[in-house]
Amino acid sequence: MKPDTAPQAFLDAIDADTMLREVQDWSAINTGTANIEGLEKMAGVLADAFSALPGDVELVQPATVTAISAEGREYEKPHGKHLVLRVRPEAERRFVLTGHMDTVFPADHPFQTVKWLDDDTINGPGTADMKGGLNIILHSLRTFETIEGSSRVGYEVMINSDEETGSLASRGLIEELARGKYAALTYEPSALPDGTLAHARGGTGNYSITITGRSAHAGRNPQDGRNAIVAASDLVLKIKGLEAEDITVNPAKIEGGAANNVVPDLAILRFNIRPKSTDAMNRFDGELGAILRGIEAEHEVGIHRHGGVTRPPKPVDDRAQRLFDLVKACGAELGQQIGWKSTGGVCDGNNIAATGVPVVDTMGVRGGAIHSPDEFMIVSSLRERAALSALVLTKLSTGDHL
Ligand SMILES: [Zn+2]
Protein backbone atom coordinates (compact mmCIF):
# COMPACT_ATOMS: atom_id res chain seq x y z
CA MET A 1 0.00 0.00 0.00
CA LYS A 2 1.26 3.47 -0.90
CA PRO A 3 -0.69 5.52 1.62
CA ASP A 4 0.60 8.91 0.56
CA THR A 5 -0.66 8.51 -2.95
CA ALA A 6 -3.74 6.40 -2.34
CA PRO A 7 -5.83 7.56 0.63
CA GLN A 8 -8.73 5.61 -0.85
CA ALA A 9 -6.83 2.48 0.19
CA PHE A 10 -7.37 3.45 3.81
CA LEU A 11 -11.12 3.65 3.30
CA ASP A 12 -11.13 0.33 1.46
CA ALA A 13 -9.24 -1.36 4.28
CA ILE A 14 -11.85 -0.54 6.92
CA ASP A 15 -14.47 -3.19 7.71
CA ALA A 16 -17.48 -0.93 8.37
CA ASP A 17 -19.93 -3.77 9.07
CA THR A 18 -17.76 -5.21 11.83
CA MET A 19 -17.30 -1.76 13.30
CA LEU A 20 -21.03 -1.13 13.49
CA ARG A 21 -21.73 -4.54 15.00
CA GLU A 22 -19.09 -4.02 17.68
CA VAL A 23 -20.36 -0.56 18.57
CA GLN A 24 -23.89 -1.91 18.94
CA ASP A 25 -22.61 -4.74 21.17
CA TRP A 26 -20.48 -2.38 23.27
CA SER A 27 -23.32 0.13 23.65
CA ALA A 28 -25.54 -2.64 25.03
CA ILE A 29 -23.17 -3.09 28.00
CA ASN A 30 -24.05 -0.52 30.64
CA THR A 31 -20.91 1.30 31.76
CA GLY A 32 -22.13 4.13 33.95
CA THR A 33 -19.05 5.39 35.82
CA ALA A 34 -20.35 3.89 39.10
CA ASN A 35 -21.30 0.53 37.55
CA ILE A 36 -18.14 -1.38 38.50
CA GLU A 37 -19.57 -4.70 37.31
CA GLY A 38 -20.53 -3.31 33.90
CA LEU A 39 -17.12 -1.66 33.54
CA GLU A 40 -15.39 -4.93 34.37
CA LYS A 41 -17.39 -6.72 31.68
CA MET A 42 -16.61 -3.95 29.19
CA ALA A 43 -12.90 -4.00 30.06
CA GLY A 44 -12.85 -7.74 29.34
CA VAL A 45 -14.56 -7.28 25.97
CA LEU A 46 -12.17 -4.46 25.07
CA ALA A 47 -9.13 -6.45 26.21
CA ASP A 48 -10.20 -9.24 23.82
CA ALA A 49 -10.84 -6.85 20.96
CA PHE A 50 -7.56 -4.95 21.38
CA SER A 51 -5.58 -8.18 21.58
CA ALA A 52 -5.97 -8.23 17.77
CA LEU A 53 -3.18 -5.63 17.80
CA PRO A 54 0.46 -6.38 18.59
CA GLY A 55 1.69 -5.59 22.09
CA ASP A 56 0.34 -6.34 25.55
CA VAL A 57 -3.00 -5.41 27.07
CA GLU A 58 -3.02 -4.68 30.78
CA LEU A 59 -5.88 -3.76 33.13
CA VAL A 60 -4.64 -1.12 35.56
CA GLN A 61 -6.03 -0.55 39.06
CA PRO A 62 -7.74 2.84 39.52
CA ALA A 63 -6.06 5.42 41.75
CA THR A 64 -7.68 6.10 45.13
CA VAL A 65 -10.27 8.87 44.96
CA THR A 66 -12.08 10.45 47.88
CA ALA A 67 -15.17 12.66 48.09
CA ILE A 68 -16.90 14.60 50.87
CA SER A 69 -20.27 13.28 52.09
CA ALA A 70 -23.26 15.48 52.96
CA GLU A 71 -22.17 15.00 56.61
CA GLY A 72 -18.75 16.42 55.87
CA ARG A 73 -16.92 13.08 56.00
CA GLU A 74 -14.25 12.12 53.50
CA TYR A 75 -14.90 8.71 51.95
CA GLU A 76 -13.41 6.55 49.22
CA LYS A 77 -15.20 6.24 45.88
CA PRO A 78 -14.82 2.94 43.99
CA HIS A 79 -13.83 2.97 40.31
CA GLY A 80 -13.35 0.48 37.50
CA LYS A 81 -10.01 -0.62 36.08
CA HIS A 82 -8.41 1.15 33.12
CA LEU A 83 -7.11 -0.58 30.00
CA VAL A 84 -3.62 0.04 28.65
CA LEU A 85 -2.18 -1.48 25.46
CA ARG A 86 1.54 -0.99 24.87
CA VAL A 87 2.89 -1.55 21.38
CA ARG A 88 6.61 -1.35 20.57
CA PRO A 89 7.53 0.63 23.71
CA GLU A 90 11.17 0.61 22.58
CA ALA A 91 10.43 2.78 19.50
CA GLU A 92 11.83 6.27 19.54
CA ARG A 93 8.74 7.95 18.12
CA ARG A 94 5.64 7.01 20.05
CA PHE A 95 2.03 8.16 20.22
CA VAL A 96 -0.72 7.86 22.76
CA LEU A 97 -4.35 7.25 21.81
CA THR A 98 -6.93 7.67 24.53
CA GLY A 99 -10.60 7.06 25.13
CA HIS A 100 -13.01 6.21 27.93
CA MET A 101 -15.26 3.21 28.43
CA ASP A 102 -17.64 4.84 30.95
CA THR A 103 -20.84 6.70 30.11
CA VAL A 104 -23.04 9.14 32.03
CA PHE A 105 -25.94 6.65 32.11
CA PRO A 106 -26.15 4.62 35.35
CA ALA A 107 -27.34 0.99 35.40
CA ASP A 108 -30.88 2.04 36.38
CA HIS A 109 -31.22 4.75 33.71
CA PRO A 110 -34.04 4.11 31.19
CA PHE A 111 -31.68 4.74 28.21
CA GLN A 112 -30.05 1.32 27.64
CA THR A 113 -30.71 0.15 24.10
CA VAL A 114 -29.72 1.02 20.56
CA LYS A 115 -32.25 1.90 17.89
CA TRP A 116 -32.09 3.21 14.34
CA LEU A 117 -33.21 6.79 13.70
CA ASP A 118 -32.67 6.65 9.94
CA ASP A 119 -30.54 4.54 7.63
CA ASP A 120 -27.31 6.28 8.67
CA THR A 121 -28.01 7.18 12.31
CA ILE A 122 -28.29 5.13 15.47
CA ASN A 123 -29.42 6.31 18.90
CA GLY A 124 -27.90 4.53 21.88
CA PRO A 125 -26.05 5.09 25.16
CA GLY A 126 -22.39 5.82 24.58
CA THR A 127 -22.57 5.29 20.83
CA ALA A 128 -20.99 8.70 20.18
CA ASP A 129 -19.49 9.29 23.64
CA MET A 130 -17.54 7.21 23.09
CA LYS A 131 -17.82 3.53 22.25
CA GLY A 132 -17.83 4.55 18.60
CA GLY A 133 -14.57 6.39 19.31
CA LEU A 134 -13.05 3.33 21.02
CA ASN A 135 -13.93 1.28 17.97
CA ILE A 136 -12.26 3.83 15.72
CA ILE A 137 -9.08 3.51 17.80
CA LEU A 138 -9.14 -0.26 17.28
CA HIS A 139 -9.85 -0.27 13.55
CA SER A 140 -7.61 2.64 12.63
CA LEU A 141 -4.72 0.89 14.40
CA ARG A 142 -5.52 -2.41 12.66
CA THR A 143 -5.31 -0.60 9.35
CA PHE A 144 -2.21 1.31 10.43
CA GLU A 145 -0.49 -1.96 11.37
CA THR A 146 -0.80 -3.17 7.77
CA ILE A 147 1.20 -0.21 6.52
CA GLU A 148 4.86 -0.43 5.82
CA GLY A 149 6.63 1.81 8.30
CA SER A 150 4.23 1.31 11.20
CA SER A 151 6.77 -1.04 12.77
CA ARG A 152 9.19 1.88 13.18
CA VAL A 153 6.92 3.64 15.68
CA GLY A 154 5.23 2.64 18.92
CA TYR A 155 2.10 3.67 20.70
CA GLU A 156 0.05 3.22 23.81
CA VAL A 157 -3.73 3.02 23.99
CA MET A 158 -5.31 4.10 27.26
CA ILE A 159 -9.02 3.55 27.89
CA ASN A 160 -10.11 4.83 31.30
CA SER A 161 -13.21 4.01 33.32
CA ASP A 162 -13.93 7.41 34.86
CA GLU A 163 -13.69 10.20 32.27
CA GLU A 164 -17.28 11.30 32.78
CA THR A 165 -16.64 12.12 36.42
CA GLY A 166 -13.38 13.95 35.76
CA SER A 167 -10.78 11.15 35.43
CA LEU A 168 -9.80 11.49 39.09
CA ALA A 169 -8.84 7.79 39.22
CA SER A 170 -6.88 7.92 35.94
CA ARG A 171 -5.28 11.37 35.78
CA GLY A 172 -1.92 10.15 36.95
CA LEU A 173 -1.97 7.29 34.44
CA ILE A 174 -2.93 9.62 31.57
CA GLU A 175 -0.15 12.05 32.40
CA GLU A 176 2.39 9.24 32.79
CA LEU A 177 1.46 7.76 29.40
CA ALA A 178 1.35 11.14 27.65
CA ARG A 179 4.72 12.40 28.84
CA GLY A 180 7.41 12.32 26.18
CA LYS A 181 5.06 11.20 23.42
CA TYR A 182 5.34 12.66 19.95
CA ALA A 183 1.61 13.33 19.65
CA ALA A 184 -1.68 12.32 21.23
CA LEU A 185 -5.09 11.57 19.78
CA THR A 186 -8.24 11.36 21.90
CA TYR A 187 -11.49 9.94 20.57
CA GLU A 188 -14.25 12.15 21.92
CA PRO A 189 -16.98 12.68 19.29
CA SER A 190 -16.58 15.65 16.98
CA ALA A 191 -17.65 19.00 18.43
CA LEU A 192 -20.38 19.29 15.78
CA PRO A 193 -22.13 16.54 13.78
CA ASP A 194 -20.38 17.80 10.61
CA GLY A 195 -17.01 16.62 11.99
CA THR A 196 -15.76 19.94 13.37
CA LEU A 197 -13.00 19.35 15.94
CA ALA A 198 -12.76 20.96 19.38
CA HIS A 199 -9.80 23.35 19.42
CA ALA A 200 -8.77 25.28 22.58
CA ARG A 201 -10.62 24.30 25.73
CA GLY A 202 -11.10 26.02 29.07
CA GLY A 203 -10.33 24.15 32.28
CA THR A 204 -12.49 23.10 35.20
CA GLY A 205 -12.18 22.56 38.93
CA ASN A 206 -14.53 21.22 41.60
CA TYR A 207 -14.25 22.07 45.26
CA SER A 208 -15.95 20.96 48.47
CA ILE A 209 -15.27 23.28 51.40
CA THR A 210 -16.31 21.89 54.78
CA ILE A 211 -16.91 24.55 57.42
CA THR A 212 -17.05 23.53 61.06
CA GLY A 213 -18.54 26.03 63.48
CA ARG A 214 -19.89 25.56 67.00
CA SER A 215 -23.51 24.79 67.82
CA ALA A 216 -25.47 26.64 70.49
CA HIS A 217 -29.11 27.33 71.38
CA ALA A 218 -30.54 29.94 69.03
CA GLY A 219 -32.47 31.58 71.90
CA ARG A 220 -30.51 30.93 75.07
CA ASN A 221 -26.85 31.38 74.14
CA PRO A 222 -26.52 32.23 70.44
CA GLN A 223 -23.41 34.30 71.25
CA ASP A 224 -21.58 31.04 72.07
CA GLY A 225 -22.29 29.58 68.64
CA ARG A 226 -20.24 29.93 65.47
CA ASN A 227 -22.63 29.77 62.55
CA ALA A 228 -21.26 27.60 59.73
CA ILE A 229 -24.08 28.61 57.35
CA VAL A 230 -23.29 32.31 57.79
CA ALA A 231 -19.59 31.62 57.15
CA ALA A 232 -20.48 29.56 54.05
CA SER A 233 -22.70 32.37 52.76
CA ASP A 234 -19.92 34.91 53.25
CA LEU A 235 -17.59 32.52 51.40
CA VAL A 236 -20.07 32.21 48.50
CA LEU A 237 -20.11 35.97 47.96
CA LYS A 238 -16.34 36.26 48.25
CA ILE A 239 -15.53 33.50 45.74
CA LYS A 240 -18.22 34.77 43.37
CA GLY A 241 -16.34 38.08 43.59
CA LEU A 242 -13.28 36.38 42.04
CA GLU A 243 -15.09 36.03 38.72
CA ALA A 244 -13.36 37.82 35.89
CA GLU A 245 -13.26 37.80 32.14
CA ASP A 246 -11.00 34.74 32.16
CA ILE A 247 -12.74 32.73 34.90
CA THR A 248 -16.27 31.90 36.02
CA VAL A 249 -17.22 30.66 39.50
CA ASN A 250 -20.40 28.68 40.17
CA PRO A 251 -21.37 28.17 43.82
CA ALA A 252 -23.56 25.11 43.34
CA LYS A 253 -24.73 23.75 46.69
CA ILE A 254 -24.66 24.34 50.44
CA GLU A 255 -25.31 21.30 52.62
CA GLY A 256 -25.37 20.98 56.38
CA GLY A 257 -27.31 23.26 58.71
CA ALA A 258 -29.38 22.33 61.72
CA ALA A 259 -32.84 22.78 63.28
CA ASN A 260 -34.30 26.28 63.36
CA ASN A 261 -33.51 26.72 67.05
CA VAL A 262 -29.86 25.64 66.76
CA VAL A 263 -26.84 27.61 65.58
CA PRO A 264 -25.57 25.28 62.81
CA ASP A 265 -22.05 23.93 63.25
CA LEU A 266 -21.69 22.35 59.79
CA ALA A 267 -21.86 23.61 56.22
CA ILE A 268 -20.40 22.14 53.05
CA LEU A 269 -20.08 24.44 50.10
CA ARG A 270 -19.62 22.85 46.68
CA PHE A 271 -18.56 24.95 43.72
CA ASN A 272 -17.14 24.73 40.23
CA ILE A 273 -14.70 27.05 38.46
CA ARG A 274 -13.99 27.38 34.73
CA PRO A 275 -10.64 29.08 34.17
CA LYS A 276 -9.91 30.02 30.56
CA SER A 277 -6.15 30.26 31.06
CA THR A 278 -3.41 28.83 33.24
CA ASP A 279 -2.92 32.31 34.69
CA ALA A 280 -6.56 32.51 35.75
CA MET A 281 -6.32 29.02 37.28
CA ASN A 282 -3.25 29.87 39.37
CA ARG A 283 -4.56 33.29 40.39
CA PHE A 284 -7.83 31.76 41.65
CA ASP A 285 -5.97 29.16 43.68
CA GLY A 286 -3.92 31.78 45.50
CA GLU A 287 -6.88 34.07 46.13
CA LEU A 288 -9.03 31.20 47.40
CA GLY A 289 -6.38 30.33 49.97
CA ALA A 290 -6.36 33.90 51.30
CA ILE A 291 -10.17 34.05 51.40
CA LEU A 292 -10.41 30.77 53.35
CA ARG A 293 -7.91 32.01 55.94
CA GLY A 294 -9.91 35.24 56.23
CA ILE A 295 -13.21 33.37 56.77
CA GLU A 296 -11.59 31.16 59.42
CA ALA A 297 -10.35 34.17 61.33
CA GLU A 298 -13.43 36.35 60.97
CA HIS A 299 -16.07 33.69 61.72
CA GLU A 300 -13.93 31.60 64.10
CA VAL A 301 -14.67 28.41 62.18
CA GLY A 302 -12.59 25.49 60.96
CA ILE A 303 -12.21 24.95 57.24
CA HIS A 304 -11.30 21.82 55.28
CA ARG A 305 -10.64 22.22 51.57
CA HIS A 306 -11.17 19.26 49.20
CA GLY A 307 -10.75 19.17 45.45
CA GLY A 308 -9.29 21.63 43.00
CA VAL A 309 -8.61 21.95 39.29
CA THR A 310 -8.99 18.54 37.66
CA ARG A 311 -8.77 19.69 34.03
CA PRO A 312 -6.25 22.46 33.37
CA PRO A 313 -7.10 24.84 30.50
CA LYS A 314 -5.99 23.57 27.09
CA PRO A 315 -4.52 26.30 24.92
CA VAL A 316 -3.41 25.34 21.40
CA ASP A 317 0.31 26.04 20.98
CA ASP A 318 2.28 25.97 17.72
CA ARG A 319 2.98 22.24 17.80
CA ALA A 320 -0.63 21.40 18.63
CA GLN A 321 -1.74 23.68 15.79
CA ARG A 322 0.51 21.78 13.41
CA LEU A 323 -1.23 18.58 14.49
CA PHE A 324 -4.62 20.20 13.75
CA ASP A 325 -3.31 21.28 10.34
CA LEU A 326 -2.14 17.73 9.67
CA VAL A 327 -5.56 16.26 10.56
CA LYS A 328 -7.20 18.81 8.28
CA ALA A 329 -4.83 17.98 5.41
CA CYS A 330 -5.46 14.22 5.87
CA GLY A 331 -9.19 14.93 5.84
CA ALA A 332 -8.84 16.82 2.57
CA GLU A 333 -7.02 13.85 1.02
CA LEU A 334 -9.94 11.62 2.01
CA GLY A 335 -12.53 14.09 0.74
CA GLN A 336 -13.50 15.15 4.26
CA GLN A 337 -13.71 18.82 5.12
CA ILE A 338 -12.46 19.37 8.66
CA GLY A 339 -12.59 22.59 10.67
CA TRP A 340 -12.39 23.39 14.37
CA LYS A 341 -13.78 25.64 17.03
CA SER A 342 -13.00 26.43 20.66
CA THR A 343 -15.29 25.02 23.35
CA GLY A 344 -16.12 25.37 27.03
CA GLY A 345 -16.27 21.58 27.41
CA VAL A 346 -13.43 19.58 28.97
CA CYS A 347 -12.01 16.10 28.51
CA ASP A 348 -8.82 14.06 28.93
CA GLY A 349 -7.30 16.19 26.16
CA ASN A 350 -6.95 18.95 28.77
CA ASN A 351 -4.77 16.74 30.96
CA ILE A 352 -2.72 15.52 28.01
CA ALA A 353 -2.10 19.07 26.78
CA ALA A 354 -0.90 20.01 30.28
CA THR A 355 2.05 17.62 29.79
CA GLY A 356 3.12 19.63 26.73
CA VAL A 357 2.18 16.94 24.19
CA PRO A 358 0.24 18.12 21.10
CA VAL A 359 -3.24 16.62 21.11
CA VAL A 360 -6.36 16.60 18.97
CA ASP A 361 -9.08 15.28 21.27
CA THR A 362 -12.17 14.90 19.07
CA MET A 363 -10.98 12.22 16.65
CA GLY A 364 -14.04 10.05 17.38
CA VAL A 365 -17.29 9.64 15.49
CA ARG A 366 -19.57 12.29 14.13
CA GLY A 367 -22.62 12.45 16.34
CA GLY A 368 -24.34 14.59 18.92
CA ALA A 369 -26.84 15.12 21.76
CA ILE A 370 -24.32 13.37 24.02
CA HIS A 371 -25.12 12.98 27.75
CA SER A 372 -28.82 12.77 26.83
CA PRO A 373 -31.18 9.96 25.78
CA ASP A 374 -31.11 11.55 22.30
CA GLU A 375 -27.41 10.70 21.87
CA PHE A 376 -26.81 9.69 18.27
CA MET A 377 -23.99 8.43 16.10
CA ILE A 378 -23.70 8.83 12.34
CA VAL A 379 -22.92 5.29 11.21
CA SER A 380 -20.93 6.17 8.09
CA SER A 381 -18.56 8.24 10.24
CA LEU A 382 -17.10 5.05 11.76
CA ARG A 383 -15.35 4.13 8.54
CA GLU A 384 -14.67 7.73 7.60
CA ARG A 385 -12.97 8.62 10.87
CA ALA A 386 -11.10 5.31 11.14
CA ALA A 387 -9.57 6.00 7.73
CA LEU A 388 -8.77 9.55 8.86
CA SER A 389 -6.95 8.31 11.97
CA ALA A 390 -5.05 5.66 10.05
CA LEU A 391 -3.86 8.29 7.59
CA VAL A 392 -2.94 10.75 10.36
CA LEU A 393 -0.91 8.05 12.14
CA THR A 394 0.85 7.19 8.90
CA LYS A 395 1.85 10.81 8.31
CA LEU A 396 2.91 11.19 11.93
CA SER A 397 5.13 8.12 11.57
CA THR A 398 6.97 9.34 8.54
CA GLY A 399 6.77 13.12 8.63
CA ASP A 400 9.21 15.68 9.97
CA HIS A 401 8.88 16.80 13.54
CA LEU A 402 5.70 18.60 14.49
ZN1 LIG B 1 -16.66 11.46 26.27
From TrEMBL:
<dbReference type="InterPro" id="IPR002933">
    <property type="entry name" value="Peptidase_M20"/>
</dbReference>
<dbReference type="Pfam" id="PF01546">
    <property type="entry name" value="Peptidase_M20"/>
</dbReference>
<dbReference type="GO" id="GO:0046872">
    <property type="term" value="F:metal ion binding"/>
</dbReference>
<feature type="domain" description="Peptidase M20 dimerisation">
    <location>
        <begin position="201"/>
        <end position="293"/>
    </location>
</feature>
<feature type="active site" description="Proton acceptor">
    <location>
        <position position="163"/>
    </location>
</feature>
<dbReference type="InterPro" id="IPR036264">
    <property type="entry name" value="Bact_exopeptidase_dim_dom"/>
</dbReference>
<keyword id="KW-0378">Hydrolase</keyword>
<dbReference type="Pfam" id="PF07687">
    <property type="entry name" value="M20_dimer"/>
</dbReference>
<keyword id="KW-0479">Metal-binding</keyword>
<dbReference type="InterPro" id="IPR011650">
    <property type="entry name" value="Peptidase_M20_dimer"/>
</dbReference>
<dbReference type="GO" id="GO:0016787">
    <property type="term" value="F:hydrolase activity"/>
</dbReference>
<feature type="active site">
    <location>
        <position position="102"/>
    </location>
</feature>
<dbReference type="InterPro" id="IPR017150">
    <property type="entry name" value="Pept_M20_glutamate_carboxypep"/>
</dbReference>
<dbReference type="InterPro" id="IPR050072">
    <property type="entry name" value="Peptidase_M20A"/>
</dbReference>
<protein>
    <submittedName>
        <fullName>Hydrolase</fullName>
    </submittedName>
</protein>
